[in-house]
Amino acid sequence: MQTRHIGDVQVSAIGLGGMPMSIEGRPDEQRSIATIHAALEAGVTLIDTADAYHLGANEVGHNESLIARAMAGYGGDTSDVLIATKGGHLRPGDGSWTLNGSPKYLKDACDASLKRLGVEAIGLYQFHRPDPKVPYAESVGAIRDLLDAGKIRFAGISNADPDQIRQSNEILGGRLVSVQNQFSPAFRSSEPELELCAELGIAFLPWSPLGGISRAGQLGSRFAVFADVARAHGVSPQQVCLAWMLAKAPVVIPIPGSSRPETIRDSVAAVDLKLSAEELARLDTA
Questions:
Q1: Which residues make Cβ contacts (< 8 Å) with residue 228, sequence separation at least 6?
Q2: Residue 227 falls inside a structural domain
Q3: How far is CA 241 from CA 62, 66, 112, 132, 204, in A?
Q4: Is residue 123 part of a domain?
């Protein structure tokens, strides 16, 4: 498995996004754990989650707890696996999403995530989404405090614009290691953030890189050029999409969501797919 860096830690070039295993349409726990184990067996060493990946209001942190159980039940060595979670985005249990970026909430949420994950320090903790009711500097300041207190090893942000990336890195004293933004063939507006991360040497983690849970399987039909290139290589359009992202910059680490062992195995295979400059140019125009 090819590797890339988050901070001074090497991680797999493809991560696993845990959200599909805990929200609407989620599979049973046995299949979810099999999916996580398949990712580990394929060499994945970055698993992304959040306390808001759940359904009912009474099961906050469902995905964090699921990942903790899967890690504990895995027979192999997991010492090099970086678990990334997030705080500041909430699901009341009615299908909606709300925000809370207050420093007290973020610190309490981090403590709760620590317990669910069963670790002494969270590998990567990310401020999930800006809260317009709370000054951004105050929210990121709470992440800095968690970093200084040793409760988290690395600090990241999510759903941020270029100004927020620069501001966060300043508040964190140059210790911002990752930015997790939406990026896919259908959602290209995070190109400026990707380019800034490449300039600063900060990992860029595209979420929903295949277009989202309900649309990942339709990628080839929605974007014909991805299907054309896939046929030429004898691979899936999804593999082509992830290989295209990896070629954009050495800081890009896609985190496709998966709820089946076969889909994460297919995603991981993208690291071995070499696309020509001509193919990459064609994909860029999709």
A1: none
A2: no
A3: 29, 28, 35, 33, 16
A4: yes
Q: Are 165 and 148 a contacting pair, CB within 8 Å?
A: no
Reply yes or no on whether 105 is catalytic: no
Rounded-to-integer distance, Cα 159 and Cα 165, Å: 10
Count up the domains in the chain and report the number: 1
Catalytic residue among 53, 105, 125, 136: 53
**Beta-strand (E) ranges in 7-45?**
9-12, 16-17
pLDDT band for position 117 (cuts 50, 70, 90) = very high
Interval 145-203: pLDDT, tens = 999 999 999 999 999 999 999 999 999 999 999 999 999 999 999 999 999 999 999 99
Reported as a pLDDT band with limits 50, 70 and 90, residue 9 is very high
- Say how far residue 175 (Cα) sits from the centre of its chain: 18
Mean pLDDT of the chain: 96
* Structural domain boundaries, residue 108: 3-218+249-272
CATH number of the domain that residue 259 is part of: 3.20.20.100
